[in-house]
Amino acid sequence: MTDAFSLSRRKVLGLTAGAAASPFAPGILRAQASGRCIVSTWGGDYARLLTENIETPLLAPRGIEAVQDVGVEPTRVARSIAQRRLPRGTVDVMCVQAPGAYDLNEAEMLEPLDVEKVPNLRHVQPAFATTYAIPHIYSPQIIAYPPERVTTPPTTYTDLEQQRFAGKVGLLDNSVIWVLMAAALKHRGDPGEFLAVRPQIEQLVRAGVHTYTATDAFGPAMRSGEIDIGLVWYARIVFWRRAGIELRAAFPAEGCMTYVSSMCVMKNAPNKPAAFAYLNAALEPAAQRGFAASMGYHPTVANAPLEGETAVNLALPNPPPRLYPAPYDKLSAARNEVEDWWRRLMDRR
Length: 349
Hints:
By secondary structure, the chain is an alpha/beta fold. It has helices spanning 9-17, 28-32, 44-59, 73-82, 98-106, 176-188, 198-206, 218-224, 234-242, 272-282, 285-295, 308-313, 328-347, and strands at 35-41, 64-70, 93-97, 134-145, 169-172, 210-212, 229-233, 248-250, 256-265, 298-299, 323-325. The protein has 2 domains: 9-138 and 260-320, 3-Layer(aba) Sandwich (D-Maltodextrin-Binding Protein, domain 2); 139-258 and 328-347, Periplasmic binding protein-like II (D-Maltodextrin-Binding Protein, domain 2). Strands 1, 2, 3, 4, 5, 6, 7, 8, 9, 10 and 11 form an 11-stranded mixed beta sheet that branches. It starts with 8 loop residues before the first helix and ends with a helix.
């Protein structure tokens, strides 16, 4: 394992690129969790929902004052890397994408987690469980399409490669490695074989694929008719439907790659008991349902069934699709190679 105090420049750049218990069990959490908890997080709706669903209703009554340190993920991670030698850093809870949590743990910067520290870990769905971070929320990668123009719904990733969609396929530039993993799942039976399916993505590009740097541009492009099919997160479909963009989600028969947003405790966190309490509260059913209702992301715990309109909007097929978190070790090792390949491919268009 990499020594956290002697990270290579390449590793540092990789780091910055980039689970019906009581809310607090007796003993360490209930007796010691108090005071200020610094939460490094994204801004916008996510930060607001942390306050509305976790910090105000679940932590403030117990004497935990959550203070948010808001910023883009690479900048926040870089700041923690710079502080890794300090016995006490400035962050208790780090909110990052799951691949970023993996990288931080490989750099020995995260506190190990277990049910003694975070009792609600016992409810986390096994597919998302790790020993170093909680999976906060998740969303499957699906095939989006407008039903008025695509009257025969797609059923598999390889529908994107069909001639009938030539020039009408959309991809998110910032999610190309997830597209590669989806292609590898279909063509190789293993999302970890994503480097081997680069020729298939190159063929899509040559057929006239549209790429979008901003996720928010994807839905309007479908509404306008610029694209008819593409890979995107299910949560975005829920969001665009609320905005009046009529889209449908097809769940690939081979299974869905799955985005996971994680929370972890820094090894040099100044208030670890409060940080563990924060993670435990984030896994509470009420908090999980709150994020589902507002953001369209699914709960990662098995004891938070959705209800009413939220259950309808976020319904998965029956039987449910197989969900595949990224093979984080392979992704971490190849991230720079994929980024370089994609940049060169875009330059040659």
